[in-house]
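Two proteins follow. First one:
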Amino acid sequence: MSFDDTYLHSRATRAIPKKSPFHFVGQMTFLNANGKSQAMEYNSLLEYHVAICSRYRPDVVDVEEQIAPIMVRHGTVRATPYWFDLRLTHRNGQRTAISVKPQRKAERHVFHAKMEAVTRVATMETANRVCVATERNVDPIELANAKLFHAARHPDPYMDDQVTSALDALTKPMQIREFLDACGIGSTGFWSVIRLIRSGAAKVLAAERITPRTIITHGENS
């Protein structure tokens, strides 16, 4: 797997701590639409989970964090800045601004009232729609598979070509490990299969956490 030390730096417009004794903070890099490594910082474990799940949904091409604030007047005479934790760009060009909050905070009446004011401004200035993401929106299976797609994000041209050719010759659904053994590639081709699933060239037959035992077949993009 290659390492890109010329990655694009975080686009956050609000400072995110490099370390904290109270929060899970950090940085990850994903491949943008041009195949370049783009850094993205996060300020909590929940933000990380929402971000990585969002980035590896088929209709999402970009995830930005802490975009430029909007000015919102809510319960005060003077407008104050509001930063969205994430903004998704979809393949159709639409954008979704996301406020990430623990469920216990998202349920509060004062938060609902504030988000109504935020949404009115945001849909005019920075996004096509606004939503709130809590831990209830993070599906454990989707999270596990997103982490797998992320780990396999860097292509291996030689192995990818071998596995793609073998997939073209697949005549029936098979477990990933059986497929790789049958075509003589073995376990070293596992990450290439993950990339084919991610691209849509291969399809899994059950909504489950992807493992070597997962059954695959030809995908819509094969």
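Second one, unrelated to the first:
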Amino acid sequence: MSAAAQRTALIVIDLQNDFCAGPVAAARYPGDPQRLATVAANAARAVRTARAHGTEVVFVRFLGDPVHQGAAWRHRDAVLGKRPKCLEGSWGAEFHGVAPEPGEEVFTKHATFDAFLTEGFGPYLTGRGIGHLVFAGVFADVCVDSTARTAFQKGFHVTVLRDCTAALHHPDEDVLRFMGRVYGARVTTHDRPAVWTRLPEYLERP
């Protein structure tokens, strides 16, 4: 990592009503709905902590309107009977339990999992000298993983807040273990800001 890419950013993924609360979220999430509520509350706390420590917060949101979907996405939804989520302008697309403050960047994914497929996301991070990404939000095995995977391949260092995310299709611990093994992700909790608001230890060594 160059000296110019020594900053940390908290990346908040898809913390939106259709993924975190209400009937759509409850129908999709196979675990205890209270788990989603706890994850969302912890992610909101992480945002407040990041701001207090001067760590940049970057929001990513999802819009799933059919007009944004590719042919394969529409086919999958038709086969599985899936309805689109986070429709533009709907309550479901609104942020849940947290809102960007003036000056904080928001990037919108149009029926994609990976935030790096959103125009400007990667260049914004590198332009800001950010080389360490801390992930919170949902879901750990879908959009968080997709973005963390690309981040690692592009040279970003990855930290995941285990109590600020939840997996949709696989056990949480299996997903976090995979990220640690394949992406070298550091895994910690939101209540340890002395750990995650800083660069990983190996980057701080002279």
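SUMMARY FIELD: The longest strand covers residues 56-63. The mean pLDDT is 95.
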